[in-house]
Amino acid sequence: MAEVAHYQKEYPEWSRHLQGLHERYVDPFVINVQGRDVVVLQENVMQAEDLSLVLSHYFCNETVFPLEFWNGKRIIELGSGTGIVGRPQTVSTRFDAHAFTGTVMASLGADVVITDKHPQTELIKKTTERNKQVMVGTHSVQELLWGQDVAAFGKPYDVIIASECIYYNDLVGPLCDSMRKLSNGNTDIYLSYETHNDESVDFFMEEASLFFDISLVPHLDHHREFQSEYVNIIKMRLKQSLCK
């Protein structure tokens, strides 16, 4: 099981937490992907967050993932908020994210399925429609609740991504169940999380390690600018003993 580092929070200068209300909750947010602008629409309590920024920029880091690495990769994003990678799987007072990481991955050439529950899927569709000109790969938006049947999603994916998903212990089981059903021994699973809740992180690691081999992505591999000591990324793979 991966060793989890816990940090005292200090926001970097690019952090969304340091921006004004309009910038954080209302104005469209833009991320540049290989010279193309991906526009994240923000509405009500849906917004781009630091965890999604760190994860998205990690995937754009060409020192780790060479140019064209993502071309044709089949990727599914779980609980993607309005697309960026978020956690609107339950009613919460927390602010969730917008169609971001999934859209970024399609802009990098991947074939992406972005999932969430209704009505979040409707806002995700607005963001993907806004960015269809810059998405090199294919994309679709589908409803998926963690733990439900995934037969309609086809064969296991090359990559599974999720963010802002380690908060409530009662959701760990359904999340792990979905990741197991959508993966095989060759699927790479990437999760970003904030080291704000030691107990929740530890509980997730303990439960997930029953099914997955887990490693912490070194911060040296994160994007040079868009990284933070309070945001971690883990990489997971289904244990070989559980592969059919």
How are the elements arranged and paired?
Blueprint: H1 21-25, E1 29-33, E2 36-40, H2 50-59, E3 74-77, H3 101-107, E4 111-116, H4 120-130, E5 139-143, E6 159-163, H5 172-181, E7 188-194, H6 198-208, E8 212-216, E9 231-238
Parallel strand pairs: 3-4, 3-6, 4-5, 6-7
Antiparallel strand pairs: 1-2, 7-9, 8-9
Pfam families: Methyltransf_16 (PF10294)
InterPro entries: Methyltransf_16, SAM-dependent_MTases_sf
Keywords: Methyltransferase, Transferase
Report on this model:
Helices cover 22% and strands 20% of the residues. The protein has a seven-stranded mixed beta sheet, with helices on both faces. A two-stranded antiparallel ribbon has the order 1-2. The protein has helices at 21-25, 50-59, 101-107, 120-130, 172-181, 198-208, and strands spanning 29-33, 36-40, 74-77, 111-116, 139-143, 159-163, 188-194, 212-216, 231-238. It is globular, with a radius of gyration of 16 Å. The longest helix is centred in the middle third of the chain and has 11 residues, at 120-130. With 244 residues, the protein is an alpha/beta fold.
